[in-house]
Amino acid sequence: MSEPVKIGDKLVGPGQPCFMTAEIGINHNGDLDLARKLIAASVTAGCDAVKFQKRTVDVVYSAEELARPRENPFGTTNGELKYGLEFGAEEFAAIDEFCKLNGIMWFNSCWDEASVDFSESYNPPAYKIASASLTDDNLLRHHRATGRPIILSTGMSTMAQIDHAVEVLGTKDLIILHATSTYPSQPEELNLNCIQTLIDRYDVPVGYSGHEVGLSTSVAAAVMGACMIERHITLDRAMWGSDQAASIEPHGFSRLVRDVRTIEAARGDGQKVVYDSEIPIIEKLRRVDSQQLAG
């Protein structure tokens, strides 16, 4: 059985409570006030952490991609959209303060080395490596050089590619997330049995990053051994934004956390016992107690 990984004041791994993460990502739509509302909703839901994304736009995207026409709230090109969605030092300082005031951890998915360096100033409890970055060896090494726990998402990746990423990162303080990188994902492409495959193959804590519609499959992931559940959060799935439709609204996120915690309480230790609460039922319904016969 793999050893738990410590993220902030929480242990993540077998035998520990499922680490519930609300992915805010870019669902803040470049609006700090909306980001605060999403953090507050995550706290109310009972989440352990919220996660954002950080990019150096002109490093992650080519000039051609930034110039591509794309109508959006910030302008008419893809570049105007990417820059409009990107938070800087002022916004992340406010996020850091707000999260501390509300007692919730936060960290970033960093898409380039400079974004890792930027995020280091906030002393994050961990880093998330997005599925899109799994094959970027230099970025993996740059993350690992921080010495912080790494959460590696594995959407759109072959087993050979995951093998290589794990070889680059090493298994110390590593959590792997099973994921399917479509937004939203169809149930028949979730392949939740892969959670156990990853547990058996890498002997590290394994979680689940879901992009499906609904809650039941994410709850099932927890039942099937996921030690961490990450889902996108939104105030309204009908809002503008590429990730909103694959996100969960606040009431739904509260239900997700509640259901996972109920499962944890119900799992038990596997030892068959007669509970004190059952004694009156025995006295009421049984004609003969087998223990009396045995005596």
Please sum up the structure shown.
With 295 residues, this protein is an alpha/beta fold. The chain has helices spanning 32-45, 57-60, 63-67, 78-85, 89-102, 113-120, 137-144, 159-169, 194-202, 216-223, 250-267, 279-285, 290-294, and strands at residues 5-7, 10-12, 19-25, 49-54, 69-72, 75-77, 105-110, 127-129, 150-153, 174-179, 206-210, 228-232. Helix content is 40%, strand content 19%.
Written overview of the protein:
With 295 residues, the protein is α/β, with parallel strands linked by helices. The protein has one domain (5-294): TIM Barrel. The chain has 13 helices and twelve strands. It has helices at residues 32-45, 57-60, 63-67, 78-85, 89-102, 113-120, 137-144, 159-169, 194-202, 216-223, 250-267, 279-285, 290-294; strands at residues 5-7, 10-12, 19-25, 49-54, 69-72, 75-77, 105-110, 127-129, 150-153, 174-179, 206-210, 228-232. The strands form three sheets. It has an eight-stranded parallel β-sheet with strand order 7-4-3-12-11-10-9-8. A two-stranded antiparallel ribbon has the order 1-2. Helix 8 (159-169) links the parallel strand 9 and strand 10. The longest helix has 18 residues, at 250-267. The two termini are 42 Å apart. The mean pLDDT is 96.
